[in-house]
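Entry 14. Ran structure prediction on the chain below.
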Amino acid sequence: MARRSAHSPEELRQRILEAAQGIIERDGLIGLSAREIARAIGYSPGTLYNIFENLDDLLLTLQTHMLAELVEVMRSVPEEQTPQETIDALGRAYLDFALRNKLMWNLLFTHSMPSQMRAPTALVDNVNKISEVVEKPIGQMLKSANKAEVELAAKALWAGVHGVTAIAVTEKGPTLNPATALVFVQHLVSTYTRGLTSK
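Output, structure tokens:
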């Protein structure tokens, strides 16, 4: 039953996000509804719409938070002895994060944003920050490359790593799955960087 709010808007926002994440981690996106979130936090469904514009706004916020966590994971990867070793370590960290957070990670692919909505600036910024982490060791490999070339090389490599990770997380590949994904990521990274440095 609905009750008068005993929480500040910021506290309610956090409770809603935590409840939504819990539901997704338990049941996937299909189990998420305003009614289910409201039941989990002990408020009426209308309370959600006092905090978030709609469920899409809520889901984009969850994606933004997840990517912010991923940025911190990747930034915490120690720089190894060589740029190649650093990139290898970043690939492992990226894949490990996705496999540890499968249902939340799948949210990136299963949530279709309405055409009139734009991705939040913070979400786009987090995607760019992930690319920037990769740019540093790529730049060390490509000493004579300009900034635009380094950015393109990093984004192209990470699009491939992201693709391998997405297939592994969804477990829809007959040979590419959580058990084999690391081999695929390592092969992709080493083949790509070998091609970069041989030019």
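The radius of gyration is 20 Å. Will compare against last week's run tomorrow.
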